[in-house]
Amino acid sequence: MTEMLQKFDVIVIGAGAAGLMCAAQAAGRGRSVLVVDHANKAGKKILMSGGGRCNFTNYYVTPDKYLSHNPHFCKSALKRYTQWDFIALVERYGVAYHEKKDGQLFCDNKASDILNMLLSECEQQGVTIWLDTPVSAVAQCTLRGCRYQLKGGGVLLGCESLVVASGGPSIPTLGATGFGYELAQQFGLKVYAPRAGLVPFTLTDHNKQLSEALSGTALNIEVECAGQVFRDDMLFTHRGLSGPAMLQISSYWQAGQSLSINLLPDHEVASLLRQQQHERPKLSLKNWLAELTTQKFAEKWLASSAWQQSTLAQLSGADMDAIALSLHQWLVKPAGTEGYRTAEVALGGVDTDELSSKTMEAQRFPGLFFIGEVVDVTGHLGGFNFQWAWSSAVAAAEFV
Ligand SMILES: Cc1cc2nc3c(=O)[nH]c(=O)nc-3n(C[C@H](O)[C@H](O)[C@H](O)COP(=O)(O)OP(=O)(O)OC[C@H]3O[C@@H](n4cnc5c(N)ncnc54)[C@H](O)[C@@H]3O)c2cc1C
Q1: Which atom of ligand 1 lies nearest, measured to the CA of 393?
Q2: C-alpha pair distances (Å), 332 with each of 97, 204, 240, 382
Q3: Nearest ligand 1 atom to alpha carbon 39
Q4: Which of 61, 198, 344, 371 to mutate to test the pocket of ligand 1 (most atoms within 8 A of CB)?
Q5: For residues 134 and 122, is the Cβ–Cβ distance under 8 A?
Q6: Cβ–Cβ < 8 Å for 310, 283
Q7: Pairing between strand 336-337 and 97-99?
Q8: Ligand 1 mean position to 22 CA, how many Å?
Q9: How far, in Å, is the centroid of ligand 1 from the Cα of 371?
Q10: Which CATH superfamily is domain 6-196+346-397 in?
Q11: What percentage of the chain exceeds 90 in pLDDT?
């Protein structure tokens, strides 16, 4: 006897940010929609995001905030479902939010406000959600009105449109997998090898001891690598360097490259030292540096230097230039990153050349869609990744 096939217009794999958004919007068009997820709870990354407050979008969404092998791909979807559209949805639900800095919008209360909003949208539109449902045996289907079939928790399922919204492999403990990449490869679609992005650096050289000693200290710095510059906070950790500035530059960093860190970007150290030497000659270099940073930083930074006990009067011109260089261009060669264990995103993913930028549909496989993080589009820190999830989801939802 042939196995009974349960049919939906649309099946979405992954009940995360993109999957839930796409499901609600597609069901709003009258499509019957099933969302399957192997996790025991929907939207786990949403709940974890933004330190529990979900940085759900940004006032200043522009394509240059995204990394992709095709920087133009994201433009169409971002233009058609904008941050203002998502903000309008958030406001319709009365979710309280605030701008933290640089246009980053966070919930006043909890990230669950965003997840509950998405689940409520799904419920109102009649979306069926199956959790604890592993997916296997995805294949094209030859039955009428059915283009793809799969096994979901042992049930044979069929659909006209299959939406892959299974995210990237960062934070595996939250149920993250590389399933979407494998599925794309199964259909012969090109996938750019994923790697951890928005992730802290690890150090092994002499700078490791300094980071350990300064663990917990934060400085507002400017970091440069591979032609990119970010100005934000940097945090010393037991393992290396973290904080928003380091997470941002990590997405551009390649193994073997050095970071150039300006520890005092608001000051011109060489001329400032000369001026201070004239005005406050008896001041110790350590106390001068502590005034601009922290006492702990000044102590540890100067601990192994020749100027540990120097007063400003004792410094030669060459000393002052060397001190300025060491503070304005601190060169750090990371040993690596903390990897998917703590990364906020995975760079790489399904090659955008395989997809329509208007619909997110695979060019060679009608009815097969990829949305969200599984696609080779990765945002900067600051709410840009969720905005990509919402925008790509809505783009697909109009055509599934
Ligand atoms: C700690 C942390 C904090 C973050 N904070 C922010 C933030 O504040 N702002 C921001 O913009 N971005 C943030 N991000 C990034 C953001 O969470 C992701 O970009 C976004 O969740 C991607 O959405 P998605 O729907 O593509 O994938 P996800 O939200 O990861 O959803 C994928 C879903 O697919 C399911 N799945 C995976 N494999 C399978 C499988 N084999 N079978 C069935 N289901 C499967 C998963 O269980 C999951 O529910 C953060 C990420 C992390 C890890």
Answers
A1: 25
A2: 37, 11, 10, 25
A3: 47
A4: 344
A5: no
A6: no
A7: unpaired
A8: 14
A9: 11
A10: FAD/NAD(P)-binding domain (3.50.50.60)
A11: 96
Residues facing 304 on adjacent strands: none
SS3 396: helix
Summarised one tens digit per residue, pLDDT across range 301-347 is 999 899 999 999 999 999 999 999 999 999 999 999 999 999 999 99
Q: For residue 241, what pLDDT is reported?
A: 98
Q: Which CATH superfamily hosts domain 200-337?
A: Translation factors (2.40.30.10)
What is the model's pLDDT at position 2? 56
> What is the number of the ligand 1 atom nearest to the C-alpha of 15?
49
pLDDT value for 1: 44
pTM of the model: 0.97
Instruction: Say yes or no to pLDDT of 364 above 70.
Output: yes
Per domain, the residue ranges of the chain are 6-196+346-397, 200-337
Nearest CA to ligand 1 atom 11: 383
Residues with Cβ within 6 A of ligand 1? 13-19, 36-39, 44-45, 48-50, 54-55, 134-135, 165-167, 170-171, 175-177, 179, 344-345, 372-373, 383-386, 389
Q: What angle do CA 379, 384, 385 make, to 5 degrees?
A: 65
C-alpha 286 to ligand 1 mean position (Å): 45
How close is the Cα of 48 to the center of ligand 1, in Å? 9
